[in-house]
Amino acid sequence: MEMERLTKEGEGPPSQGKSVRASQVHFSINTSGDDIEYGCCGWALLTLSMIIIVLTFPVAICMCVKVVQEYERAVIFRLGRLAKGGAKGPGIFFVIPCTDEYRKVDLRTVSFDVPPQEILTKDSVTIAVDAVVYYRVQDATMSIANVENADGATRLLAQTTLRNMLGTKSLSEVLTDREHISSGMQSTLDEATDPWGIKVERVEVKDVRLPVQLQRAMAAEAEAAREARAKVIAAEGEMNASRKLKEAADVMSESPNSMQLRYLQTLTSISSEKNSTIIFPLPIDMISNMLKK
């Protein structure tokens, strides 16, 4: 039958190089609840329900009146369709027990931990990264009508987004550029969850776990770098000290009495230490005079 229909329309059979595309059906959900047609049976059932409520008014009023908190909204389905006016609340709202069904949606910010994900970075290093996501429901009707489980879908999407984003980063970028990674994940998740009525407020990368061998290698590299810097600093200190000693020697050579004053100052500092044994070095001038004699 499909071949005959295509032939009649002038498209030709698939064997002639024409590809047959399956028809795509797009489902549109009226989240506003306007222009609802219940049909004859629907209106009859609604009328019957209203008559029952009027006849059993004292008892039925307890079943019709519902209350939602300030941070909640109620999405009402009447005969399987979204009720007119969208989500109800906060405060009191009315439902028809026989035909209405409602679901409460919490609008407060929710946080959840993304389990540690084994990720292969751009430079072929396997790491385990976990994160925390903060989100809230900004459209209660869309979170009920457009997705079966908004919380579960957001959690799964956060895991895949974390793996996909970190897979394009090197290890050094993951360790040093967490803020950029968090903002990128937040914008990606927010755009993907917008049709679900979800607003992703914040994403934070909590911890990056490296393999034990890589941790040891990085620790050895850091220690070697610190030792190299320490040697350079010590060498610079020795060079500066030698320069200062040379300058001091030049000053003392210009004034022979300064050597005697330095000798007396050294004896004073030795005697202040209260040592039991004090060694007096012979002055160089005395030794030179003895050698001359």
TrEMBL record:
Cited SMART domains: PHB
Alphabetical keyword list: Membrane, Transmembrane, Transmembrane helix
Main location: membrane
Band domain sequence ranges: 63-222
InterPro entries registered for this protein in UniProt: Band-7_stomatin-like (IPR043202), Band_7 (IPR001107), Band_7/SPFH_dom_sf (IPR036013), Band_7/stomatin-like_CS (IPR018080), Stomatin_HflK_fam (IPR001972)
Region of interest (Disordered), ranges: 1-21
Subcellular location: Membrane
PROSITE patterns for this protein: BAND_7 (PS01270)
Classification via Pfam families: Band_7 (PF01145)
Bias-annotated ranges (Basic and acidic residues): 1-11
Chain ranges passing through the membrane: 43-68
Family named by the database record: Belongs to the band 7/mec-2 family.
Name of the protein: Band 7 domain-containing protein
Organism annotation: Clavelina lepadiformis
Taxonomy of the source species: Eukaryota, Metazoa, Chordata, Tunicata, Ascidiacea
